[in-house]
Structure formats: structure tokens, C-alpha cells
Amino acid sequence: MKIKDKTLLIHDRLFSQMGECGCPLVHADAFQLLIAVMLSAQCRDDRVNQVTAKLFSEAPDARSMADMPLEKIEEIIHPCGLSKAKSSNILGASKMILENFNGCVPRSMQELTTLPGIGRKSANVVLGNAFNIPGFPVDTHVRRVLNRLGVTKSQNPEIIEREVCSNVPDTLWTNFSHLIIQHGRRVCSAAKPACDRCILNDICSKKGVAK
Questions:
Q1: pTM of this structure
Q2: Angle between helices 157-167 and 140-149 (to 10 degrees)
Q3: Residue 123 near residue 112 (C-beta atoms within 8 A)
Q4: Which residues are catalytic?
């Protein structure tokens, strides 16, 4: 089976099972999503949502966040881990949004990745979920699942992104990433993939291999 056909088949099967997933990070606008994405690094989405409920009640936008003392941000986000680095990035990004982008979260990959704490994966999440601009975020789940399925042999997120995007219509990119992430969490886990209940078992290149 050609890689393009296989990639589309993977999408169609996962979509038939889960449909439109939506972003699990609770947010009211692009700024809040940006901050939630920063906090989600090495942290579960449910914990991020608990923390942002408090954080956004005190600082819901770039202006109020930029005015919040660094120590206060660090205190609130401490449960998400890496609080020193994340609080510095949150404050820095909020100030840059005010100073460089007239208080609005930028809507391009090039501009988003100038913000501290925002790489391609995070920028794609914001573009796809806040602005409906097609993007395919590649996290550890996406990398693992697509390597096991034989869609890619690369461990480089940018290469994986290019490979998938060349084989799938851009209208599917954002949700396709959500579908793969959910599949990686629920079925194709890192340590013990549940191959016996995997909808993709028959087309998997490494079924039963925990790598």
C-alpha cells in the first residue's frame, strides 16, 4: 500500500471511531490557548485546565498577564511543572504580544515562533484551533504512532509534519493530529500498546512492539 493511501486510511479509520475531537485545552480565545499550550509541556491536559481556570480568572488577557508579577505566575502554575521556565515564557510572550503585535496573538508560523516558549508544534496547535489555519502538530504521541504504523521512519517532528501534510488534505491536518494523539493515549501507548483492540492493527508495521 502506498504511504499516501495508508495515511488517508489511518485518518478515515480513526475518524470513524472518534470524529471531530476538538482541542482538550480549555480556552476562551487565542491568547488563552497559547498560554495553555505552553503549560501543557510535560503536563497532562486535565491538570493544565485546572491551573488555567485560576490563572485566567486573574489574568485573562495579554495586558493583565503582562502586569502580573513573575512570582505570582510561577506560584499559580507550579502544579504544571517547570514553573520557572514556563512563568518566564508566559510573561515574556505576553509582553511581546503587547509590544510587537498590538495586543493580538499573531496568526502566522513565522511570528508565533518568535514568542518565547513557542515552537512549531505549539504554533500549529494555536493556528489550527484558534484561527482555523491548517496545521499538523507533531508531539511524542504522533511521532510514536506514525513510526509504529510505518507512515514515517523519521524521529524529526518537522520531517514528519512535512510527510503527513504532503499526503493529507490541509482541511484534515488539525483534527488528524488530535485523532492520532487520542489513539496514542488510549490504545497505542508507549510502554504497552493495546494491539488486540486497535482499529489499525492489520496495517501496523510494528504491532506489539513497545518502541
A1: 0.90
A2: 60
A3: yes
A4: 121, 139
